[in-house]
């Protein structure tokens, strides 16, 4: 049996994905400082090109601030439908080639190719797949190759833009050693600052700190961080087709045709599982509505949608599906809502054209729901 330490893991990351799609739509945008997001001063930057980043611009920055830093930047409205379409196109290419892959976000993929190097050559095969993706989609994509997910992701980041990097088995620690600690995944500004205050600035130094001391500094996260600094990561590649859906349904005490009641139930169920999506940092790409009539006939209808986890977007899709599905005018015994085709991502990805206030509102709503329970704050029933 091959141990986890001898795995062959590839990480693919679509470079500046939203920006790249916009440049694909309009080649005149290539090489220019480009901002994707809303046009109002109160909107936020959803994505920005490498040229824009040179001015200190980053995603989630207020658009007004970004334009002050770079007044000549070009702003393009987001096209989440096109981004979702291109993401699915890349997914289909990978699914047709890779024996085991995980779609970890709208623009990132992990492939477990353990054992394939005997027959195809690990580097040769992944290079060919990368070239195929670029040829068939026109999108730049970077690639990292290593013995585990964490090191392969760091390798990808080092290969950007539009490059590839291989870290040979056994070379994980030496590859990571000279890097600043914030190059490690999940090491944010606060954790990096806490380490810097203790004289730990690079990964080599971090790897030499006794794990018991790191645990004392950072709790359980200290153990995980020690493993990362030493190039250790046994996280498996989770097959994409096994990604679970999130769903809920309600069987009524008495069959009903009360539309106001049914709409209220749709609002309740949609908000409940949309909150679950956000708690798990997931986005859904497919919505399904289910109806069971009083004669026990059960019907469902689904639609693929741009990836999102926002209540106001999902409620419109659920309402539209229910309207199209409910055509018998019989009493209803049960209704259900399911979100599937799940990928990692947070709600800011869906709020391209909304304001900072809208993002803050979602954050406030979720804070209240986490503290008191999702059912204590809901929208009005007139969906």
TrEMBL record:
| The keyword Plastid is annotated on this UniProt entry | no
Q: Where is the UmuC domain?
A: 9-188
Q: How is the cofactor bound?
A: Binds 2 magnesium ions per subunit.
UniProt entry tagged with the keyword Cytoplasm: yes
Q: Which SUPFAM superfamilies match?
A: DNA/RNA polymerases (SSF56672), Lesion bypass DNA polymerase (Y-family), little finger domain (SSF100879)
* InterPro entries in UniProt: DNA/RNA_pol_sf, DNA_pol_Y-fam_lit_finger_sf, DNA_pol_Y-fam_little_finger, DNA_polymerase-Y, DNApol_IV, IMS_HHH_1, Rev_trsase/Diguanyl_cyclase, UmuC
Entry-linked CDD domains: PolY_Pol_IV_kappa
- The source's domain of life comes to Bacteria
Which catalytic residues are annotated?
108
Q: Looking at its record, which EC class is this enzyme? A: transferase
Catalytic activity, as annotated: DNA(n) + a 2'-deoxyribonucleoside 5'-triphosphate = DNA(n+1) + diphosphate
According to its UniProt entry, the protein's GO biological process terms are: DNA repair; DNA-templated DNA replication; error-prone translesion synthesis; SOS response
The Swiss-Prot or TrEMBL record lists the needed cofactor(s) as: Mg(2+)
Query: What's a Pfam family in this record?
Result: IMS_HHH_1
Q: Assembly state and interactors? A: Monomer.
- Give the family this protein belongs to, as stated in its UniProt record: Belongs to the DNA polymerase type-Y family.
Q: What is this protein called?
A: DNA polymerase IV
Q: State the organism named in the record.
A: Chitinophaga japonensis
The taxonomic lineage of its organism, from the top, reads: Bacteria, Pseudomonadati, Bacteroidota, Chitinophagia, Chitinophagales
């Amino acid at each position: 049996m091959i141990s986890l330490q001898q795995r062959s893991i590839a990480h693919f990351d679509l470079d500046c994905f939203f920006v790249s799609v916009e440049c694909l739509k309009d080649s005149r945008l290539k090489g220019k400082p480009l901002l994707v997001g809303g046009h109002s001063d109160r909107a936020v930057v959803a994505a920005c090109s490498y040229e824009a980043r040179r001015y200190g611009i980053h995603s989630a920055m207020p658009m007004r601030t970004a334009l002050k830093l770079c007044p000549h930047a070009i702003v393009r409205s987001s096209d989440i439908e096109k981004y979702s379409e291109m993401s699915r196109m890349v997914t289909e290419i990978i699914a047709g080639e890779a024996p085991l892959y995980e779609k970890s976000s709208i623009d990132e993929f992990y492939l477990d190719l353990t054992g394939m190097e005997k027959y195809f050559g690990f580097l040769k095969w992944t290079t060919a797949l990368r070239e195929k993706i670029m040829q068939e989609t026109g999108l730049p994509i970077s690639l990292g190759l290593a013995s585990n997910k964490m090191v392969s992701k760091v390798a990808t980041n080092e290969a950007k833009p539009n490059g590839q990097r291989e870290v040979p088995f056994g070379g994980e620690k030496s590859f990571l050693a000279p890097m600043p600690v914030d190059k490690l995944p999940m090491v944010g500004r606060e954790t990096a600052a806490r380490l810097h205050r203790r004289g730990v600035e690079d990964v080599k130094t971090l790897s030499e700190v006794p794990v018991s001391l790191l645990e004392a500094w950072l709790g359980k996260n200290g153990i995980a961080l020690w493993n990362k600094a030493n190039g250790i990561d046994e996280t498996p590649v989770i097959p994409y087709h096994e990604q679970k859906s999130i769903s809920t349904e309600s069987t009524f005490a008495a069959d009903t045709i009360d539309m106001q009641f049914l709409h209220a139930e749709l609002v309740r169920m949609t908000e409940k599982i949309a909150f679950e999506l956000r708690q798990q940092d997931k986005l859904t790409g497919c919505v399904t509505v289910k109806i069971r009539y009083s004669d026990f006939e059960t019907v469902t209808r689904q639609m693929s949608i741009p990836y999102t986890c926002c209540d106001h977007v999902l409620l419109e899709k659920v309402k539209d599906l229910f309207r199209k599905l409910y055509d018998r005018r019989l009493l209803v015994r049960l209704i259900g809502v399911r979100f599937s085709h799940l990928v990692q991502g947070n709600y800011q990805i869906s709020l391209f054209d909304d304001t900072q206030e809208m993002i803050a509102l979602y954050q406030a709503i979720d804070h209240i729901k986490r503290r008191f329970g999702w059912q204590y704050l809901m929208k009005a029933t007139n969906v």
